[in-house]
Amino acid sequence: MKRVAILQSNYVPWKGYFDLIASVDEFVLYDDMQYTRRDWRNRNRIKTPTGLQWLTVPVMVKGRFEQPIRDTRIDGTGWAARHWKALECSYRRAPAFEATAAWLEPMYRHRWTHLSMLNRALMEAVCTRLSIATHLSNSWDYALPGGRNERLASICEQAGAQIYVSGPAARGYLDEAAFTRRGIDVEWFDYGPYREYPQLWGTFEHQVSILDLLFSGGADAPSLARRA
């Protein structure tokens, strides 16, 4: 039975995001949705010697308040060097820093123009490192009817899904009947519990970018990114 999940792209998201990807056969990046400010689309957190730090990709938003994520342009190029410097300073003592930096640093040298493109490229690279073989697709690969629930259900139907896997945050708005009419079951995904690993800089923190796990977990990263 084919399992599908649909979610907006995030900037180097936490391990739970990748655990959800690994749980399905196809993961649809829902970047036709409106870009939301002060959200996970263009930022995430890392651990540093002085505490948690946000890494934020600057984007062009003035006069573009209703733009979809897929059309959101990155503002400038200096952010990439700053992000890499922050990662290097925070994780150069981590066990898998050199191995991770070998493929990750070149991605920060590329001149990205759109947030969605950056997010997807990083997600694909991370999936490879975590041995996740799930097919990634884009929402614009499918016809999108009106209405949030109808769109989600229609994407699943077009993708040939029998099961739609949704994060728990959608319980407040998801209309399961839209899926039932199409013969699709809805399954609710539970994040965690996740195992701790040797993490730098004080008290263990789960809610940080997957990069923290990749730098710190080494060969154990694929199993550490899955629920215990």
What is the helix tally? Answer: 8
Element order: H for helix, E for strand: EHEEEHHHEHEHEHH
DSSP helix fraction: 25-40%
Beta strand count: 7
Based on CA atoms alone, the radius of gyration comes out at: 18 Å
Topology of this structure?
Elements lengths: L2 E5 L7 H8 L3 E4 L13 E6 L2 E6 L21 H14 L5 H13 L5 H15 L5 E4 L9 H12 L3 E4 L9 H5 L4 E4 L21 H8 L3 H4 L4
Parallel strand pairs: 1-2, 1-6, 2-5, 6-7
Antiparallel strand pairs: 3-4
Helix pairs in contact: 2-3
Explained architecture:
With 228 residues, this protein is α/β, with parallel strands linked by helices. The chain has one domain. Helices cover 35% and strands 14% of the residues. It is built from eight helices and seven strands. The strands form two sheets. The chain has a five-stranded parallel β-sheet with strand order 5-2-1-6-7. Strand 3 (43-48) and strand 4 form a beta hairpin. The longest helix is centred in the middle third of the chain and has 15 residues, at 115-129. The protein is globular, with a radius of gyration of 18 Å. The model has no long low-confidence stretch (mean pLDDT 97).
What structural keywords apply?
35% helix; two-stranded antiparallel ribbon; five-stranded parallel β-sheet; 8 helices; alpha/beta
Short description:
The protein has one domain. Helices cover 35% and strands 14% of the residues.
